[in-house]
UniProtKB/TrEMBL annotation, chain A:
Gene Ontology cellular-component annotations: U4/U6 x U5 tri-snRNP complex
Biased amino acid composition, Basic and acidic residues: 42-65, 123-146
Biological processes, Gene Ontology terms: maturation of 5S rRNA; mRNA cis splicing, via spliceosome
Coiled-coil residue spans: none
Biased segments, Polar residues type: 444-453
Family statement drawn from the similarity comment of this UniProt entry: Belongs to the SNU66/SART1 family.
Organism the protein comes from: Ciona savignyi
Record-given protein name: U4/U6.U5 tri-snRNP-associated protein 1
Organism domain of life: Eukaryota
Alphabetized InterPro entries for the sequence: HIND, SNU66/SART1
Primary site of residence: nucleus
Comp. bias intervals (Basic residues): 1-22
Keywords: mRNA processing, mRNA splicing, Nucleus
Keyword Nucleus appears in the UniProt entry: yes
TrEMBL record, chain B:
InterPro entries per UniProt: Hub1/Ubl5, Ubiquitin-like_dom, Ubiquitin-like_domsf
Subunit relationships: Interacts with CLK1, CLK3 and CLK4. Interacts with coilin/COIL. Interacts with spliceosome components SART1 and EFTUD2. Interacts with FANCI; this interaction promotes FANCI dimerization.
SUPFAM superfamilies reported for this sequence: Ubiquitin-like
This protein's record includes keyword Manganese: no
Domain Ubiquitin-like: 2-73
Transmembrane segments: none
Keywords: Ubl conjugation pathway
UniProt function note: Ubiquitin-like protein that plays a role in cell proliferation and sister chromatid cohesion by associating with spliceosomal proteins. Participates thereby in pre-mRNA splicing by maintaining spliceosome integrity. Promotes the functional integrity of the Fanconi anemia DNA repair pathway by interacting with FANCI component and subsequently mediating the formation of FANCI homodimers. Also plays a protective role against ER stress-induced apoptosis.
One Pfam entry name: ubiquitin
Name assigned to this protein: Ubiquitin-like protein 5
Length: 776, 73
């Protein structure tokens, strides 16, 4: 502080003008501490009080936790001991401990002592401490480059040395020659000597006749040094075994090696095979293409596992290096190829075990059905041999043509009816089925149709392709199914049929309305009908037969029916019932047709014709090659289908009025359901008093005149009349005359005057002249 | 060694000597030794930053002569 003041004094001498200010400043300073001190006194009082309280607190702590934490307990003591000493420090407004004291406390707290003094100086040098942070020196690029260059140089020289070392071992060509110039002479001499010796030996051998022996000896000598298969043992060939074909020679050469390459052993290869392999490889590359293929098939390795692919196939060689197939020539210079086959077999086995997950190849879907799609799948049908019935039954006789002709024979009918009861009902039911077909209204057709059925079956087998035959087949099928049912039923006796008929009629009577309309009618006639239906079947059939008398020729003639016709003809259901009954009875009659007598040819021309027809001499009806049989539409319809009567009103409906009134209004436009084809062409024609057709305009005028009670005026009427007459005359005008017939009139005049000319008069002047003069 | 001033503005102001690699927890203990308040009742703050116990003063960049606010919890 003192030094600072001195400095200030020096400064003051320099800047005198500031002095006063400074002094005043110092004055203030000197004044302010006193004020502060006063304040401090007050504070100190407060503090002492506080410290007392604190001490008390400390004591409290001490009593509360006598030996829980030694350090804590001692802290207040320290504080107490310190506080009196710190009186001057307290002047600085804050408590502070000396380094020693803090160190003591730190020791008690288990902390390392404060680093002060010398340690601080050491720390000052310490890098990256907060006070003296020093950046790491930047890299010297030049230095780095230098180092790199040096390193490269060293490496180069090292390599050079290595190569030189290697080359020193190899004898160069020049060296060899230089070396063996003398040697070569010696060697050649030796060889020549040998040759001469051999020749001598041969000559000797020729003389003694043992040249062969000598030859072999010489040969063996020479072959002892020859290069044989054995020398090849252990050498490897750089081709796959597959590339060598049996019965083909390949010349193998020792493969070139890199001059500076590592010391690999010699490898044999064939130039031809090399070429082949190379071309194969190129083809493979071409086939595969280079780019990415999304839907490429996964490759399978030798063992039949999928190869996991990480990168595109084209990088395979770059990563793994070229795949070289090799095999070694075994001892005694032979290669055993059997293991290759074995391996192949094993592969095959593994492959056979595996199941390919690949789906059949995707095909572009066609928008339209192709011909293949449209072709019917022909089911090969077994040609069933129709079972031949051994037992000759009554219905075998039935399908004879013209059997129904006997229907007109009334005399035998009664007997037949009675017989029918006891005959097996199979035929009856069959007829029932046949009758349902549209053509089979008359008995003759019935018999024929049954024949036709047989024909159909034959047809089916013959020409399968025909679409129509398909339809027929379907129809046949359904028919047969129905027949089967009937067959099953037919096994039981006639009694059952009677029962069935009875039930049928009953059911039809009881629930007729459900089929046709939704309303049930109960009236006296209905009840009558029911009574009739409940009469035992035998009688009923007889009765109906009676009625059929008249009906054989005219089915629709309901009114002629004796009893049944009287039953409320308006009731549709009952009429239907009648019809069905009629049919039933008809079958029963038909059944006995074969027994009926043949028409007598002696009866006249008609009889003869009939006979001829029945015998088949005369064909009355031309049958088409194949016949499509559509069952009556009634059978196509659902049983529960009915045409709703739109005009019917449900009177029990609460809201019927609103509903139906609306509908009624709307129903004007609804066309007739019962007369669909009735489309009348309406044209209204208006005619005037004279019977002339009026145009729309005229008709309107007339109507409007009548409506308003006021016609057009006299003049207008006359004008119109005139126009009309003119029109009429125009119509009647001949082509050689004027509309007023002037030519005719002139001729008439000439005739009356009997003159060859005519006098044309006009406006007081009369011109007289003949036809010639007129011309002039 | 650095010296830090801790001041609650209720009349307690202490100067604590410590190392810059001490943790705030250590500092709190020292403050507790000087003031007599339990260390775990002390909260040290600078503006709105509450210093955490396990972090060293150096990391908080608490230098010599800095003032810390002393609160109690």
């Amino acid at each position: 502080m003192g030094s600072k003041k001195e400095h200030k004094h020096k400064k003051e001498s320099k800047h005198k003008h500031k002095r006063r200010h400074r002094y005043s400043d110092s004055d203030e300073r000197s004044r302010s501490p006193s004020v502060k001190r006063k304040r401090h006194d007050r504070e100190r009082d407060h503090k002492s009080r506080q410290s007392e309280s604190r001490n008390r607190n400390g004591a409290k702590i001490k009593t509360e936790q006598p030996d829980a934490e030694v350090i804590r307990a001692q802290i207040p003591e320290v504080a107490r001991t310190i506080t009196p000493k710190q009186e001057p420090v307290e002047e600085q407004k804050s408590e502070s401990l000396s380094i020693d004291e803090t160190n003591k406390i730190r020791a008690k707290l288990g902390l390392k002592p404060l680093d002060i003094g010398n340690s601080q100086s050491e720390d000052g040098v310490k890098l990256n401490s907060d006070e003296n942070f020093v950046h790491a020196p930047a890299e010297d690029l030049a230095e780095k480059k230098k180092q790199e260059k040096l390193r490269e140089k060293i490496m180069e020289s090292k390599k050079k040395r290595e190569i030189a070392k290697k080359m020193s071992k190899v004898r160069t060509l020049g060296e060899v020659e230089e070396d063996s110039a003398a040697d070569w002479v010696v060697k050649s001499r030796m060889a020549q000597q040998q040759r001469e010796q051999d020749e001598k030996m041969m000559k000797l051998g020729d003389e003694f006749g043992v040249s062969d022996l000598i030859k072999t000896e010489l040969g063996s000598k020479s072959t002892a040094h020859d290069y044989t298969e054995r020398d090849l043992a252990g050498l490897s060939v750089e081709h796959s075994l597959e590339s060598f074909r049996e019965g083909r020679n390949e010349i193998l050469v020792i493969k070139d090696k890199e001059i500076l390459g590592s010391d690999e052993e010699d490898v044999l290869h064939s130039l031809n095979v090399d070429d082949v392999e190379k071309s194969k490889k190129n083809m493979e590359i071409k086939r595969r293409g280079v780019g990415y293929k999304a839907y490429e098939e996964e490759e399978i390795d030798d063992m039949g596992f999928f190869k996991a692919k990480v990168v595109l196939g084209k990088y395979d060689e770059e990563i793994e290096g070229e795949q070289i197939t090799k095999f070694k020539i075994g001892a005694s210079g032979k290669v055993d190829a059997s293991w290759v086959q074995q391996k192949e077999e094993m592969k095959q086995e593994i492959r056979a075990k595996g199941e390919s997950l690949s789906l059949p190849p995707l095909k572009l879907a066609n928008e339209y059905l192709t011909e293949e799609d449209m072709r019917f799948k022909k089911r090969k049908r077994k040609v069933k041999k129709s079972r031949k019935r051994e037992v000759f039954k009554a219905d075998d006789l039935l399908p004879l043509p013209g059997s129904s002709e006997g229907l007109s024979n009334h005399g035998s009918r009664f007997v037949l009816c009675e017989k029918e009861q006891y005959l097996p009902s199979y035929s009856a039911l069959r007829m029932l089925w046949n009758s349902t077909k549209p053509e089979d209204k008359s008995g003759t057709n019935d018999g024929e149709s049954s024949q036709m059925n047989n024909k159909d079956e034959r047809n089916v087998i013959e020409d399968d392709d025909d679409a129509i035959n398909d339809l027929q087949r379907a129809l046949d099928k359904s028919r047969r199914a129905k027949q089967k049912k009937a067959d099953a039923a037919a096994d039981e006796g006639a009694q059952k049929v009677a029962q069935h008929l009875h039930n049928l009629t009953r059911v039809k009577l009881e629930k007729p309305d459900e089929q046709f309309t939704n309303t049930l009618f109960l009236n006296a006639t209905d009840e009558f009908c029911r009574q009739l239906a409940q009469v035992p079947v035998k009688q009923e059939v007889k009765q109906v037969e009676d009625m059929d008398l008249d009906e054989d020729n005219s089915d629709e003639d309901d009114t002629q029916m004796s009893k049944w016709s009287s039953v409320n003809p308006g009731q549709e259901n009952i009429v239907k019932f009648k019809k069905s009954l009629k049919k039933l009875t008809k079958f029963s009659v038909l059944e006995h047709a074969p027994i009926e007598a043949e028409p007598l040819a002696a009866n006249g021309l008609m009889g003869a014709l009939k006979l001829a027809e029945r015998k088949g001499y005369l064909q009355t009806k031309r049958e088409p090659f194949f016949q499509i049989k559509f069952p009556k539409r009634v059978y196509i319809f659902s049983k529960y289908y009915s045409i709703e009567d739109k005009n019917a009103v449900d009177y029990l409906d609460k809201y019927a009025h609103e509903k139906y009134s609306k509908e009624r209004n709307a129903s004007i436009t609804v066309d007739f359901t019962e007369k669909k084809d009735y489309k009348p062409q309406i044209s209204i024609e208006y005619v005037d008093e004279k019977g002339r057709n009026l145009s729309a305009k005229e008709a309107f005028r007339k109507l409007s005149h009548r409506f308003h009670g006021k016609g057009s005026g006299k003049m207008k009427q006359e004008k119109r009349m005139k126009k009309l007459t003119e029109q009429e005359t125009m119509l009647h005008m001949s082509s050689t005359d004027t509309p007023l017939n002037t030519v005719a009139m002139m001729k008439e005049k000439q005739r009356s005057q009997s003159s060859p000319y005519i006098v044309l008069s006009g406006a007081g002047k009369t011109l007289v002249g003949g036809s010639s003069s007129v011309k002039k | 060694m650095i010296e830090i001033t801790c001041n609650d503005r209720l009349g307690k102001k202490v100067r604590v000597k410590c190392n810059s690699d001490d943790t705030i927890g250590d500092l709190k203990k020292l403050v507790a030794a000087q003031t007599g308040t339990k260390a775990d009742k002390i909260v040290l703050k600078k503006w709105y930053t509450i210093f955490k116990d396990h972090i060293s003063l150096g990391d908080y960049e608490i230098h010599d002569g800095m003032n810390l606010e002393l609160y109690y919890q």
